[in-house]
Amino acid sequence: MANSAPPAVGHTLLDDAHALLIGGSFCGMGVFLLHQAGLATGGISGVALLLSYLVPISPGWLLPILNLPFYYFAWRALGRAFAIKTVIATALLGVIAAVLPAWIEVGRIDRVFAALFSGALVGMGILALARHRASVGGIGVLAIFLQDRRGWRAGYVQMAFDACILFGSLFVFDLTRVGLSVLSAGTMNLVLALNHRPGRYAGY
Question: Left if phi > 0, otherwise alpha if psi is -120 to 50, otherwise beta: which for 203?
């Protein structure tokens, strides 16, 4: 007789707090390293990074501003708890990305390493948040909404929007930096596509 699947176990408030801290920290570190390397990535973080190269504002401070309309959408489409946790996660991400330059001085960073490692960091951070019904806002909110309502994989939805964002980087970067930014976004989305799919995770 085949073993039945274990029942889903709900997350406690402490579980959620831990996930928000870890997920936001991973994403914040990834954004910081990308900024130090002069690269971008996909999602709302990529938009914040691109803008930070055009205006003298840290991507960490740009993120909450860019997310304002998505907070409202998250509240209406995915519920109050999701929206509140998303606000907390993006605030934490933004603060970490903004203050890390005062904590860490980067003398040299290889751009290929930054693209791969930061993409994986951001992807794992988003994954931790998504499994606790939260996100970093932006396109991630829409991706999770479409996965819940239509069964579309969040990683693939994110990838489609990321392609549009990275196309815009052609107007900001040279082709080498565009290619490495695409590599970062691809790494991030691969983490999500392989690990965040309907039915894969039983917790809630």
Answer: beta
What CA–CA distance (Å, rounded) separates 103 from 14?
27
Distance in angstroms (rounded) separating the CA atoms of residues 157 and 143: 6
∠ CA 49-101-20, rounded to 5°: 70
Long-range contacts, 170-179 (Cβ 8 Å, 24+): 172/40, 172/50, 172/53, 172/54, 173/38, 173/39, 173/40, 177/38, 177/39, 177/40, 177/111
CB atoms within 10 A of CB 198: 12
Q: Is 34 left (phi over 0), alpha (psi -120 to 50) or beta?
A: alpha
Phi, psi of 8 (to 5 degrees): -65, 140
Q: Give the rounded distance of the alpha carbon of 176 from its chain centre.
A: 23
Q: What is the distance between the alpha carbons of residues 74 and 175, in angstroms, rounded to a whole number? A: 35
Task: Render pLDDT for 2-37 as a digit per residue (tens, 0 to 9).
Answer: 555 556 667 788 888 999 999 999 999 999 999 999
Q: How many residues does the chain have?
A: 204
pTM value? 0.84
Distance of CA 66 to the CA centre of its chain: 14
- DSSP character for 167? H
